Amino acid sequence: MERLKRTANGDPIVTLPMTRCPIITAALLLACANPLWAKNPPVSLREGDAAPVFSGVDDKGNEWNSSDYIGRNVVVVYFYPADMTSVCTRQACSFRDQSEELGQAGIKVVGVSGDSVKNHQLFKKAHSLNFPLLADVDGSIAKAFGVPVRDGGEITRVVDGKQKKLVRGVTARRWTFVIGLDGTIMNRNTDVQAATDGKSVLKLVRHLTASAQ
Predict the structure, then answer these.
(1) Position 73 pLDDT exceeds 80
(2) % of residues, the chain, pLDDT over 70
(3) What is the number of structural domains in the chain?
(4) Residue ranges making up the domain that contains 84
(5) Phi and psi for 161 in degrees, rounded to 5?
(6) What burial letters (b/e) apply to 111-141, b meaning 16+ CB within 10 Å?
(7) Mean pLDDT, residues 83-111 taken together
(8) What average pLDDT is seen over the chain?
(9) 84 and 13, same structural domain?
């Protein structure tokens, strides 16, 4: 009988069986190294997949539920890194400036970041934003959509003549999702042009709607 090999501390050495497929081998190694990854593998949503049903706290401190809108409207869920930063401000303002046309097209917009409710309130006030922002401080909504997240951070901005510190729990990647009336992903954009995101979404929805008729 082959003797079990042990380390100098007496712990047994376990050798993983190798497979001819390198992808499967890598997955086995990751699963063994990180049991949580094995239990909750990363989400990968594609066009045509059912959109996650989710809820979050909005900038007014109220619960916002996707189920109240999906099926009644085309819903745009856009994830962005941080409130009160230059590129994220341009993206938010692109949706603000297109709000009338988006509404006429039956589109509801919601922004999601790792910022707090208080941060969102400051952001909306500073730029007169006219759509809800959800506080995804633990990144749970982003993860449900498969959006990569990293550690949060903090920035300091002057608002109404006063210096404010804005702390966020996580920092999400800039991805935009369009959810159709049937509750499936119509489009997933992982290469967002922030300053024109509102126009791009409106053009996309109009095109897809016309094609379906």
Answers:
(1) yes
(2) 80
(3) 2
(4) 55-212
(5) 80, 0
(6) bbbbbbbebbbbbbebeebebbbbbbbebeb
(7) 97
(8) 86
(9) no
Decide if 49 is inside a domain.
no
The letter for the amino acid at 85 is: T
Residue 4 belongs to some domain of the structure: yes
pTM: 0.80
- On whether both 61 and 32 belong to a single domain, the answer is no
Active site residue 32: no
Residue 23 has pLDDT above 50, yes or no: no
Q: Which of 21, 32, 88, 93 is catalytic?
A: 88
Radius of gyration of the CA atoms of the chain, in A: 22
Residue 35: which residues within 8 A CB-CB, separation 6 or more? Answer: none
Answer yes or no: is 37 within a domain: yes
Spell out the long-range contacts of 51-57 with Cβ–Cβ below 8 A and sequence spacing 24 or more.
51/75, 51/77, 51/177, 51/179, 51/183, 51/184, 51/185, 52/141, 52/144, 52/145, 54/141, 54/144, 56/112, 56/134, 56/135, 56/136, 56/141, 57/117, 57/134, 57/135
Residue linked to tokens 């729990």: 169
Same domain assignment for residues 30 and 133: no
